[in-house]
Every structure is written in structure tokens, then in C-alpha cells.
Amino acid sequence: MWVLIYPAARFLVPPPRLPLTLTRVQLTVVQKFCLAAYKIIPREIHEVINADGWRTFDLLVITDMDNDSKMESENWKWRAITRKGKLTLAADNTTVKVDWVEGSDHELTSGLNYKGRAMELSDLSEYNGHLLSPDDKTGLLYDIKDDKAIPWVFLNSGPGNTTKGMKVEWLTIKDNLLYAGGHGSVKSENWTDVFSRIRWAAGYPAPGYLTHEAVQWSDKLQRWLFLPRKASLTPYVESEDETKGANILIRGNVELTKFLTVSIGGAEVKHPDRGFSAFDFIPGTEDRLIVALKSKEVEGSDPESYITVFDIDGVVLLEDQKLEGNYKFEGIYFV
């Protein structure tokens, strides 16, 4: 399931009501309306060019700590943690290093919850001047501003007639529209077929499965990119799913009808207990280099997060590097 979010200027001119099922023609009309009606604030990325030609970019990551989001010290308050980092890329784009800013961890808190769950923030994206992060429990899309999480939009799990929030796992921008999507298990007329085609193209037909938490659209490549978190040739079994971590990158055309799958770091899955949770394109690389987060969640063990860098052909530049602390980081973004 996915939804389209209009620019912040939506308060001035109400957007057209979207039908439950969007055909290709209807989607094109909506895109043209938004492009004509609004001017989108471009994304800003801080970059430092060093004397040796290496470039340094600012990184921000954010947590989804599931039940551990509940603050024990305060009643009816939940938290997510942000952490700042620096990614430095060699002039020839072949070497990369990531350093985290000591003491930069910051708590974002909220009292808004759904059945005692909240602030499980699953991605980061800047849209029209807003740094946004979705809570996959409440359905709230937060605007991260001045070290605060401000509720911005409520995303409903259905066509506007349910009380449950949408389980948003990824955000991306295409043609000035913000796409908010789930992991592929939610039935939706437009994307059920898409997820099925992706599974077949990647070699995981039913009853096998892929789960998606990391999806981006690339204007430069004119491609959709999917980094599945889990990949299995067998039906879903909760206890076995912990070790179904995927190591594939799937690239799809604009129409999402043709796909190319590449293995990351070779065909063998070196760490099947780790799966992709988010990624961003490294600036200035024509979207050919990717920095990604992986999460490890195993029953009886503390959660772990890792960062890695590779190109769109699957060549790894930075092997999995563990983030300090037992946090599950699920959003990454250049700021």
C-alpha cells in the first residue's frame, strides 16, 4: 500500500480527491496538477570539500525501537533517538568512511500513541522544506524541526474510513510528490501486482516472499530501487524470518514492469540475521553510490544496527560497520 502526499501549500488550495484506485492516466493528471500549482522547495545538503579533494557530508539517522520506545522514567511518553554522523567520500568515489559525532544522540518525544505504542520512526526524507519521519504504529508523519517531533499529517491505513494508522516503512519523492509506502504485505490494487512482479523478477515466487522497508526513486537513474529486508523461498515462519536477511538490490523501470536484480557483495548472504531498513544516495555520485542501514533483531538478543556503502552494481565500498549502542536505527538521510 502507498499514498501520495501533497506539498505543504495544500492548505491554500485543496488537492483533488484521489480515487481509491489510481490508473496510469489518473496518476499523470495528479502529477501535472501538483507541478503546475506549487513550487517545491529544493532539498538542501551540507557538503565540505577538503583540500585533498575528499568530500564530507552530514548524516542523520533515527530509531524505531518497537516496544523499547516507551520511556520508563515518564508515564505516557514515547521516544525516538536521532544521531548525527559524517560520511567522507574519496575524490574518485572508490573509498568511503563514516564517523559518528560523539554526544550527538538526541531524544524526540511524544505522548501521542496507538494502544500503548508510538515513536517507532521508520524512515527520513526532506519534502518541501520539511524533514519528515513516519511513525509506523500511529500513522503520524512527523516534521522534525528544532529538535522536536511535530505531528504533520495522519496517514490512514484505508481509504479514509478506518481509525488505524498506516504502517509506513519508507518514504521517497518522485515528480514532486512524496510517496509513503509499506513493506508489501498490505493489499492494494495498484501495488499488489507490483510487489508480485518484483518477487518473480528477483527469483522468489509464492509461497516465498520479500519484505520491503527501503525503497527510493532516483530521478537521475529514472529507476525505482528496492533493498528488501527479508527474502525467502519458503512460506513465512516467524522464528525462521529472523535469519532471512536479503543481500539484493532490485532496480525497476518507471512503469514498474521490468526489473534487474543484483547481489550485493556476492551471491552468498554473509549475515542472514541482518536486513536492510533504509538507504539514501550519496550526493554527487549520480545516484550510483548508496549508503544503507541494516537492522538485526533476534529473539533473546538486543537489537543492533549497521551501516554499509555499495554501488548499484553490488560492489561494496564499506563493509557492515556497527553503530554503537543497542538501538534499531531505521531512517538515514543526508542533511
TrEMBL record:
GO terms for molecular function: calcium ion binding; GDP phosphatase activity; UDP phosphatase activity. Its cofactor is Ca(2+). It holds the Pfam family Apyrase. The keyword Transcription does not apply. Ca(2+) binds at S122, D123, E169, E213, S277, E330. Coiled coil: none annotated. InterPro entries: Apyrase, Apyrase_sf. One of its GO terms (biological process) is proteoglycan biosynthetic process. Keywords: Calcium, Hydrolase, Metal-binding. It comes from the Eukaryota. Gene3D superfamilies: Apyrase. Belongs to the apyrase family. This is Apyrase. The lineage of its organism: Eukaryota, Metazoa, Ecdysozoa, Nematoda, Chromadorea.
